[in-house]
C-alpha cells in the first residue's frame, strides 16, 4: 500500500482540541503518514492554500471559523480537491446533510477508531 513520504503534504488535520489532534496525528504517524495540523478553521484554510493537501480531516465545531465555513472556503480556493472529511461527535443525519452541502465528502464519527480512519485514508488517498 503506498503511503505519502515523510514530510509530505498529503493530509491536513484541522482540530481545535489538542488531545483530539494529537490522537489523529499519532494514529496517522503509526501508519507512515506525516500530517500537518491546524488549530482552527481559519488556520486550516490558510494551511490548505499553502500546503495543498489531498485529504483534510476537519472538526466541525471550532473557534474563529467553524468546519462548515472552513469547508466552503477551501472549496472556493481549490474546487473539488482536496477530499474533505468531517470528524465529529454529532454524526446525525442532519449533520451529514449539512456536511454534504458545505462540500464534505464524508463524515467520520468521534471517537475515531483506527480502522475507520485508515479505511477513509485508503479510500481517498489510494
Automatic annotation (TrEMBL):
It holds the Pfam family Response_reg. It comes from the Bacteria. Keywords: Phosphoprotein, Two-component regulatory system. InterPro entries: CheY-like_superfamily, Sig_transdc_resp-reg_receiver. It comes from Amaricoccus macauensis. The keyword Iron does not apply. Residues 10-125 form the Response regulatory domain. The keyword Phosphoprotein applies. PROSITE patterns: RESPONSE_REGULATORY. The modification 4-aspartylphosphate is found at residue 59. This is CheY-like chemotaxis protein. GO terms for biological process: phosphorelay signal transduction system.
